[in-house]
Specification:
With 148 residues, the protein is mostly helical. It has helices at 15-65, 69-114, 126-129.
Length: 148
């Protein structure tokens, strides 16, 4: 039941009625297109969020796993070579400075004896005159956890 007069469908529609129908059809099509765009954007948003979560998970597990086996092996080998070089350098310094210290002792003792300032029974006069050079430069011993 409709109110008012019954529509006469035999009369052709007026120009205003045609424009109204066209407007409603265009509006319905526009809304449907917007709904499709929203659905596509939501799907893409969900996909991107999953990808971000996966990347964050991969980054966090990579940080807790530590360096790769190659990096550990290379750094271990490097530390071993550095330790060996440091011990060789320490041995070189020890030999060089001991030689210099012995020569300095001999020269100072000879000078003091020639000036009759040093009794021949005194055995270490240079310690009081010249500071030992090998004490000034010292390296820590190499770590024991690396095989030599």
């Amino acid at each position: 039941m409709t109110r008012g007069r019954r529509k006469d469908l035999t009369i052709p529609p007026s120009r205003a009625l045609l424009q109204q129908r066209d407007y409603r059809a265009r509006k319905a099509q526009y809304v449907a297109d917007l709904e499709d765009r929203v659905r596509t954007a939501e799907d893409e948003n969900i996909k991107l969020k999953r990808e971000i979560d996966a990347l964050r998970l991969r980054a966090s597990t990579r940080g807790t796993m530590g360096p790769s086996a190659e990096v550990v092996s290379a750094s271990s080998e490097l530390m071993h070579q550095l330790t060996a070089a440091a011990s060789c350098l320490a041995r070189f310094q020890q030999l060089t400075f001991n030689e210099q210290t012995q020569q300095a002792h001999a020269i100072a003792q000879a000078q003091l004896q020639s000036q009759n300032l040093l009794p021949s029974s005194m055995h270490d006069p240079v310690r009081t005159i010249l500071p030992p050079m090998h004490d000034a430069i010292s390296l820590p011993p190499p770590p024991q956890d690396y095989p030599s």
